[in-house]
Amino acid sequence: MWDNCYNYDTVREIRVKTTAYVGVGAIDRIGYILGNLKNEGISSVLCVCGGHAYRASGAWDKAEAAAQKQGIVLALYNRVTPNPTTDIVNDAAALGRAVNAGAVLAIGGGSPLDCGKGAAILLANPGKSAEDLFCFRFTPQKALPLVAVNLTHGTGSEVNRFAVVTVAGRNHRSIVGHDCSYPRYAIDDPALMTGLSAEQSRYVSIDALCRVVEASTTTMANPLVVTLASETVRLVHTWLPIVLAEPENLKARYGLCMAALQAGVAFDNSLLHMAHALEQPLSRFRDVPHGLALAILLPAVIGECYAARPDVLAHVLAPLAPGLKGEPDEAAAAAKAVEDWLFSLGINQKLLDLGVQESDVEEFCNFVEQTPSLGLLLSVAPVRSSRQRVARIYTNSLRPMP
């Protein structure tokens, strides 16, 4: 169905650049990875992570033991917060410079991995700051080697070039993506993720699903992205309910690891659009968890975009909305089916439940229009991201769909 809507004479770039180790026990490859870095003459590595999960997951013990065996010094920066700021990236890079780090090891979810990408660039570009990087004052051509040990099955940051950091002193996050910022190696070990709570498991998995729904419908999407999107939705639909019932089920966690990795590659190839752009004021001003905000907005985004990509969305959403025929007038049914599925997982909140009022929509629209980095995402949406459409998405997300 969907492949009939692609022009075979349109050339698309396809990116798959990180070597990823996926599966139970993948963390044991850290010794091989650090050995390779040692062979390159690297004797000191900056390790970037948050304050808890890097130890609780067992990843730090494995990394520390492997580093000692290779004679590599690990300089630990464990103060990365959710939605890290440029100040945090600068602090991490300062520690790396102090120990003359030759590589960066990032352990955690999206925030530590994004911070690690920023620090790896700064360490290879003396004199530059995180503000220079995330305010687009220079275009880096090099970065230190980065190893990403992923502890959540959501962002796919371990296999793409993008980093999202909040610019200190401003009201927005900035998104950068450079060829030099791909992790050289990535580790996705399901055994490191069994400690995720039910809420975390829901939100990170919905993040992966939302990424592929958006990536497969941008103006940059290619057939590989649509294929990855379809498989990602199938995996999340199949395995997320099992993980919620059996948190230590490694087969189910593995399925969600693969979903997130595929989502990362899809996003890397064709970007995201409205759901991720419109989520920003919710997490910024209302402190709504990223995955929850996406779950609230996604049905309304589908309602707006479906008619422009009916073949693709009917294919990608088939596990959640069976019976779609790829016809433009199915938009409302597709959106409602996705919302019903989200409700079945226990994600049944809408904006009114979070204290957002209809009077807040104007403020959110202003934020979206005034945030520089969101323009790129909105520009690749399959429909024009007018202020009226943005406002309609927020308004239609206030309460459950009829």
TrEMBL record:
InterPro entries: ADH_Fe/GldA, ADH_Fe_C, Alcohol_dehydrogenase_Fe
Boundaries of every Fe-containing alcohol dehydrogenase-like C-terminal domain copy: 205-366
Listed Gene3D superfamilies: 3.40.50.1970, Dehydroquinate synthase-like - alpha domain
Keywords linked to the UniProt accession: Oxidoreductase
Residues annotated as domain Alcohol dehydrogenase iron-type/glycerol dehydrogenase GldA: 19-190
Pfam families according to UniProt: ADH_Fe_C, Fe-ADH
Gene Ontology MF term list: alcohol dehydrogenase (NAD+) activity; metal ion binding
Family of this protein: Belongs to the iron-containing alcohol dehydrogenase family.
Protein name per the record: Alcohol dehydrogenase class IV
